[in-house]
Amino acid sequence: MKILITYSSKTGNTEKIAQAIHKSIPTADLLPISEIVDLNYDLIFIGGWIDRANFDQTALTLAQQIFDKDVAYFFTLGAYPHSEHAKECIHNIETLLNNNNNNIIGGYFCQGAIDPKLISWFSTLPSDHRMAPNDERKQRWEDAKSHPDHLDLSRATQFGLDIISKYR
Description:
The chain is an alpha/beta fold. The chain folds into 2 domains: 3-112 and 147-167, Rossmann fold, CATH 3.40.50.360; 114-146, no CATH class. The protein is built from 6 helices and 5 strands. The chain starts with a strand and ends with a helix. The relative contact order is 0.18.
């Protein structure tokens, strides 16, 4: 069985998750999306960071090219994992993969530290802007700094094991 674990990572968060999954499936090819040559795999794990409630552009572009495959997805996001935003991300990613007639085996996601450049940009927004810093948002940014943590990575490794056990 030929397995690919591929990812897009801006700050290293999603790469850490990909590596944790790879620990449970060491025979899989582990490649950044930029290094993929073809999609001739039996099972594809695709990962990315979240931008506007969906995969980032790199992961999104690849996901749009995956058809009729067994897939598992993973992502990191700055929002809390049980937030409405996370649920929207799951819906958008699963819709995209399902629309291409893929068989989704499972998904994993966790909070990840937010790019400091993005936080800096948010801080320049006027106070009446919907994305301007407020106390709740600043707390979430602070909480996100420690993720993915040891527990997140352990869960990602377990996710890989669970997918393989379902797949066989």
